[in-house]
From TrEMBL:
Its cofactor is a divalent metal cation. The keyword Lipoprotein does not apply. Residues 1-163 form the Calcineurin-like phosphoesterase domain. It comes from Vibrio galatheae. Keywords: Metal-binding. One of its GO terms (molecular function) is metal ion binding. Its EC number is 3.1.4.-. Pfam families: Metallophos_2. It is an enzyme of class 3 (hydrolase). This is Phosphoesterase. Belongs to the metallophosphoesterase superfamily. YfcE family.
């Protein structure tokens, strides 16, 4: 199983197009969107190519391949533009290994405030725009960074779960963070 993760698109059409090209190139079966899909948030500048209707149109073409959760900037109005559900605060995915993958945006649950997780489970979240892939205590923390507004000097990035490796990658193929999961 190969999963592709993106977070914090914030309605940027060029960033979404770039991300979808990488998703296609990756060979992943599923695109996991960790929230803040269409709205830019008043605390951020208006992103380059801000076009929520065009972003939703493009993402809807991949609707059957998407698992999405709601970010703090996502609303019911945003859901009206999307053909796939994205209003859940979290979702669970059971991996072939038996590990559970907890998907959330990061504004409610995150590495510092985790739900009940067992040893070896993974919490995947965005929100901070900072890439992370590491074992922290008994669980793995995974954040693909942001494709639109990377922070702390990082480049725009996305994440991949391929077999037993979590990694965060830039669009220039630089690995920003990685860890093996077992």
């Amino acid at each position: 199983m190969k999963l592709f993760f993106a977070s914090d698109l914030h309605g940027s059409l060029p960033a979404t197009q770039r991300m979808l090209a990488e998703f296609e190139r990756s060979g992943a079966q599923t695109l996991v969107l960790l929230g803040d899909i269409l709205n830019h948030d008043p605390r951020n500048p208006v992103p380059e190519g801000y076009n929520p209707p065009a972003v939703s149109e493009l993402l809807n073409q991949y609707g059957e391949k998407i698992i999405a959760v709601r970010g703090n900037c996502d609303s019911e109005v945003d859901q009206m533009l999307l053909s796939f559900p994205m209003m859940m605060d979290y979702a669970w995915v059971l991996l072939e290994s038996g590990q559970r993958l907890f998907l959330t945006h990061g504004h409610l649950y995150h590495s510092g405030h985790r739900p009940a997780l067992k040893q070896g489970d993974i919490i995947a979240h965005g929100h901070t725009h900072i890439p992370v892939a590491k074992l922290d205590g008994q669980q793995y923390i995974f954040n693909p960074g942001s494709i639109t507004f990377p922070r702390d000097g990082f480049s725009a990035s996305y994440g991949v779960l391929d077999q037993s490796e979590l990694k965060v990658v830039t669009f220039e193929d630089e690995i920003l963070a990685s860890t093996s999961i077992s």
